[in-house]
Structure prediction request, 1752 residues.
Amino acid sequence: MSESFFKDTAKIPFEGADSNNPLAFRHYDATQMVLGKSMAEHLRFAVCYWHSFNSPGADIFGAGTYDRPWLTEKSLLQARTKMSGAFEFMEKLGVPYFCFHDRDVAPEGDTLKESNENLDQMIGMMEEEMARTGIKLLWGTADLFNHPRFAAGAATNPDPQVFAYAAAQVKHVLEITHRLGGANYVLWGGREGYDSLLHTDLKRETAQLGRFMQLVVEHKHKIGFTGTILIEPKPHEPTKHQYDYDVAAVYAFLQKFDLQDEIKLNVEANHATLAGHSFQHEIATATANGLLGSIDINRGDPQNGWDTDQFANSVEEATLILLEILKAGGLGNGGFNFDAKIRRQSIARDDLFHAHIGSMDVAAQGLLNAARIIEDGHLQELLDARYAGWQGDLGEQMLAGDLSLQQISDLVHSQNLNPEPVSGRQEMLENLLNRYIY
Amino acid sequence: MSESFFKDTAKIPFEGADSNNPLAFRHYDATQMVLGKSMAEHLRFAVCYWHSFNSPGADIFGAGTYDRPWLTEKSLLQARTKMSGAFEFMEKLGVPYFCFHDRDVAPEGDTLKESNENLDQMIGMMEEEMARTGIKLLWGTADLFNHPRFAAGAATNPDPQVFAYAAAQVKHVLEITHRLGGANYVLWGGREGYDSLLHTDLKRETAQLGRFMQLVVEHKHKIGFTGTILIEPKPHEPTKHQYDYDVAAVYAFLQKFDLQDEIKLNVEANHATLAGHSFQHEIATATANGLLGSIDINRGDPQNGWDTDQFANSVEEATLILLEILKAGGLGNGGFNFDAKIRRQSIARDDLFHAHIGSMDVAAQGLLNAARIIEDGHLQELLDARYAGWQGDLGEQMLAGDLSLQQISDLVHSQNLNPEPVSGRQEMLENLLNRYIY
Amino acid sequence: MSESFFKDTAKIPFEGADSNNPLAFRHYDATQMVLGKSMAEHLRFAVCYWHSFNSPGADIFGAGTYDRPWLTEKSLLQARTKMSGAFEFMEKLGVPYFCFHDRDVAPEGDTLKESNENLDQMIGMMEEEMARTGIKLLWGTADLFNHPRFAAGAATNPDPQVFAYAAAQVKHVLEITHRLGGANYVLWGGREGYDSLLHTDLKRETAQLGRFMQLVVEHKHKIGFTGTILIEPKPHEPTKHQYDYDVAAVYAFLQKFDLQDEIKLNVEANHATLAGHSFQHEIATATANGLLGSIDINRGDPQNGWDTDQFANSVEEATLILLEILKAGGLGNGGFNFDAKIRRQSIARDDLFHAHIGSMDVAAQGLLNAARIIEDGHLQELLDARYAGWQGDLGEQMLAGDLSLQQISDLVHSQNLNPEPVSGRQEMLENLLNRYIY
Amino acid sequence: MSESFFKDTAKIPFEGADSNNPLAFRHYDATQMVLGKSMAEHLRFAVCYWHSFNSPGADIFGAGTYDRPWLTEKSLLQARTKMSGAFEFMEKLGVPYFCFHDRDVAPEGDTLKESNENLDQMIGMMEEEMARTGIKLLWGTADLFNHPRFAAGAATNPDPQVFAYAAAQVKHVLEITHRLGGANYVLWGGREGYDSLLHTDLKRETAQLGRFMQLVVEHKHKIGFTGTILIEPKPHEPTKHQYDYDVAAVYAFLQKFDLQDEIKLNVEANHATLAGHSFQHEIATATANGLLGSIDINRGDPQNGWDTDQFANSVEEATLILLEILKAGGLGNGGFNFDAKIRRQSIARDDLFHAHIGSMDVAAQGLLNAARIIEDGHLQELLDARYAGWQGDLGEQMLAGDLSLQQISDLVHSQNLNPEPVSGRQEMLENLLNRYIY
Prediction:
């Protein structure tokens, strides 16, 4: 920590919408009150360790490009240099949270024991940095996808020893997350899926996955961890198909294994669109079923079919998702984690700041727009009017189960019901929405 | 019925693989025994009324092209002509089943009462034709999507009167299906979804849909219908998003509304691929969860993002799905319904025969291949070997819940487990599969 | 014209950004000067006849829903009622242009002669309406896709008589367009493609298409039409594959048939995204090759794989495309044609106004943003700096062809060139862009 | 070469369709005569160096899994070990050709000079191995995408020094390819595209690319290389958009820069499908325009939007593309290069054999099927009949340009032409095709 890695960038100030300073916030004012809470409390931003500090800037066709001197060798010394840089960055950016995988912060050893020892050493430093800066842990997670042992899955591996290994690894990271006061623990099933159904017993593998999750939930209660266990849906990549495909697939799974009251979802923008859904759809589906836990904020490219993990830059999308979140009462334990990577060409040291600043401003604008929509109430009034019929006797009785199919049919015939369509007013509502966004 | 519509085509014979007669089966021999059942019993083919007899051959950019004289006016007279043609076709093709919507077989009246009366008249003729030909009903269904009243959904409509109207309509068709001895009743939620979340209360609408399905199930039991209630997943089109998106989404929904033991799925090839899944995946997911009810057999175009509903022509795909079906014990009440339409240019009267013959032969080849794969047992042996570890103590105890996360972790450390990856053998298995297909 | 169809809506005023009137423009002020031209001159909005007045609101699963009384029968009387409604709408909306297909404005007769006579009658009325209102024709086009004769293509039909018929039809509409003072003539190859390569001679069909286009160009010059001939790329739908897939495919085709100086492109947003490109990409590709003619403004749904033809509502996208257009010197003869349809549920008579107003405001905001980007010059400076090296000797000589591969190689070795990457600054630029948009 | 790397696998024999030996060919018999040429001469198989010997089996989420001991360090010693293994593999597999990038066979040095020296040393060994085994070079190519200097493109880089560096690199590899008697030289523009239009001058960059290609063509003639220069289209990945998107985009480009007689295309299956086309479409488009040079044989996953580069296993697709190739007179200089990688889980040493054997057998079956289709002539007869009208006077005169639009129109009116549609017979043809495939 002798030398500052981001020494050329000062703490990012809030300067307001008229500022021309690209290294200042124009909309994100952490302390500004919105609907009774500060922006910081609403958005609970977290920097992710992996993309921001662990990635070399490689892609499948090319070598790393980033200026990350600590990646030249895997050692505890370099892990310390990296952690210094990471906390310096987060402190200068002014985010309240971060997220990490075990293998992001400490090198894997030759045995799990050695890996755990490496990790424990780095967690010591992490506690000091957290205490020094006041930055907290949004969630921890175990890397169950990078090492060749997980090539055929972790919990869903055909080899039960891999299941056991993964379980032991999760146990350790869950306990560390607890020790660090983490708000959540995330299970990302990066390899829990299949490359080919030809060599896959789908029923057996999902049963394994169900048992794995139950084990984690049981242990959480045993150790008294009060954070939320989260699953992050993703449809595919690297596998052909992931079992936690989208919100609906995870919801089906949680119910099957009686976990729907124990586990919530970490919903990611780019995973939503890879699954063929809008981000708003996935969040609305999660909130409608009481499953929204947290957000991985980023964006995909509408023309590219892989996880581009770009920094979110659409105020329109931010407005729509924050509207869903505010209507559902906010994120609770969750937050906005930047599961996003700067482009491979973004090799200037301050590009990491530009990326986060832009995305935080976009989320702040989305929050402000969504709050205005709620305060104005006009959109909600139109929505209420659309469904007003269901407040009447017929609607209430039918929905409550007071009328049988026979009775409803009798009623249709006796009253000669012949309902006329009314306008859905979609274009008018799109125009109304645009008033808040642009 | 005075004149035969398909008079230029005789009953389609089975002539064997060496036949050059394009109007003969080369592989589908209804009576051939495969794994202890006849091909006809395995495949239970059904012709669908809508594409084959009700469609004019129009598309969104063009007028109808088909030679369907009964479509020139909507009348009971024309409905009778159509039904004669339909049963003539099915009889000549030699299929044991058919499927229909209420509005396919009788014109809609000015009121539901009038519509029901029209329908009842045509059902009388249908019973006669069924008796005459021995052709049975695979499933009936109500058209809850074509009329403007359903533009904003049937069960999920913002207007409860539309819900009631749809309920009354389903009641009637469910009772007709019962009367006709139908093996199943299908709910296709053609408009149960949304065009925009801006004017949609997703939580309320899905609650409406849940109640609707419960009503249908309750009525089924009340009237003593022993067939299966089926839901047909589809991701979108005509709506932006359908609530019954894919097998997983329907499974989540069924569990939420406690319907998982009452309703099964009618899985369609083209709907699977529109949802971003392989057809095999959707069937495997359904069978893994005990949800497979029936099949809508067709295919989409891998480059086109709408429901092209082409006739299935891939023996490779047929083999894979029949393998899943045979492994799950067959289709039970279900069947293979040709939810497929001939191309808009296919305007010769016998094109409808060519299309069905080709697809039936493809399914027959798939059945034969799948049966050989099962009889040989080699693929299953390789699969069993892959998961053999789970038959050992560690695997069984972990899956049974006999070991806690702590115990598993202790075991990993005490035994210093460090599992090595083994080859997934995907390419070898793909080669093995090809031996059966080509 | 005795009664006003849109009688409940008055002429749409411009009221400014603070207006709460949903039937007023908030950003589109026709007379506002932007970079030396009025907004009206920049954007040259056109209403399209087909979606707005000819569509019943049907989709592939459902009957028409719109309130379009003139569609109940195909007659010249109804065509007149429709035209009155159309011009009333356009006048109240305040657009300077419209577009039409021959079959939109007059019913098809039993022979081409009769069709032409019907059309000629309606063109008479059209001239009167144009004179009365001052509304002009952006482009005319012939409907070569709706009638069954075109099921296998028009110019690319296997039957040369269909080619001839289409040629005769285009001749008449081209002459009408000329007579009406149309600014352009559009060729949309709605069926110029294939459903299956099995029955298609791709090489022959594209040769037919090339000859067809040459015929049109030759006739244009013969009759002295000075408007631009435009081709509208579309990748597929209704066919599996259209020959005019995207801008690049059309450019290849135009060069092959030596038409690149005679024909330009009418680029549509939704066709771009169906082809796997961003709208901006297609426009940038067209302008880079001197091929941009006009714009069909609409939007698709990023999750739906068919031509949803929704009204554009993204200021972000409007900004990006107007930036490309302004940098290329504007649209010239072209304009923004609303090839967009209101949703099937949008059945209130004024929904058509809401839809157009919203989209016109969005384009106006895009224009204002793009103009500010150009006036500020900052984005262009950054771009110029990025390529500055090409202004040096090495860059200029290499690009001019003054150095051979051998000479360049010698130079690399003698100077021991080893160029270092510099940051692409993508996130910083995205933030900069957002300053103008939000 | 002291020790054999693939020592557990013997030379792969041809054993015929009834063989159960997974390490034998069942259909590919190199010497079998088909339409007057041996299978080997038709298919001209090539093993690719990069996927088969240079890839560690990593993906974007995980470390390498393959057993490739020579990848542990970058040295000439390891490069020699690798080359021994590569030629051992190719010899045992029995392929006549291979392909390579410069950086596949020799480590990059600190300067281009050093890189070239490394390469030259390995080319010496390559010549020996080629002489020893008789295996020839299908094509060579330069890696212009892996090193960070190419992050913003090679020929299209904003820095002209990178253009120069790439030119020097290509010069050397082109000369090596010439020296080795390579049949072709491939330009793959792995980074010739953009990540964002915000920082891209598309017009300038494509001009740079055009000049680059002209330089290569000029040098080819200068040194007397008689092989073909090939461009390999790809739509995106790693970039958002590649300039050589698909066959049509490359054709447009070649014409613009007057290269259409100098450069042909290397068409890849997975790149075709990523671009939204069928593989057959891309090949048919290339042959229709005289542009087909060679084939990169592999397959994508229809549900995954990235370049999965799997080994081809569909006889159906192989039949269709070989039909196009045979109809166009064969591949000439080109061949079938296996640009395919075994799955990350395929870590057994013989998996590489299984993958190639399966794909070679599939191509052989496709060749046999396509030859039978051609010999039977039935499909061609049906196609000829479909277009027969164009052999008549009207068709010939219109296509030859002997009739103007006016004359054609007059003829339509005077003869009162009103062509009737005929059936396109798609389903019948699909059935016919299946007779040959299954």
Remarks:
- The radius of gyration of chain D is 24 Å.
- Chain D touches chain A through 34 residues (CB under 8 Å).
- The domain at 33-376 of chain D is CATH 3.20.20.150 (TIM Barrel).
